[in-house]
Amino acid sequence: MNRRDICEAGAELIGVDRAAQYGDAVVGFTAIAQIRDALDMVRGARPRGAEDQALDMIAVKLVRASANPRHLDSWIDIVGYAALGGEIASESEP
């Protein structure tokens, strides 16, 4: 697959009514930003680490699951990101 094919596949993906699956993009992105702001507030001055990225991905999936709780992929992804984040955090403990 070349770059043109990839761009065309992306255009097809966003051209489909994804709102039916995940809700309105602006509403979802706003909710994700609010969750990330809350995570940053609690994290404080601690430098952002790989485990924080796992939390950010969980935030994305939480919003998607909230928009469509019957879409099991979001629930499965939450479990996967939590497991990865926990593993990373346990390996970086002093």
Automatic annotation (TrEMBL):
<dbReference type="InterPro" id="IPR045958">
    <property type="entry name" value="DUF6378"/>
</dbReference>
<dbReference type="Pfam" id="PF19905">
    <property type="entry name" value="DUF6378"/>
</dbReference>
<protein>
    <recommendedName>
        <fullName>DUF6378 domain-containing protein</fullName>
    </recommendedName>
</protein>
<feature type="domain" description="DUF6378">
    <location>
        <begin position="7"/>
        <end position="89"/>
    </location>
</feature>
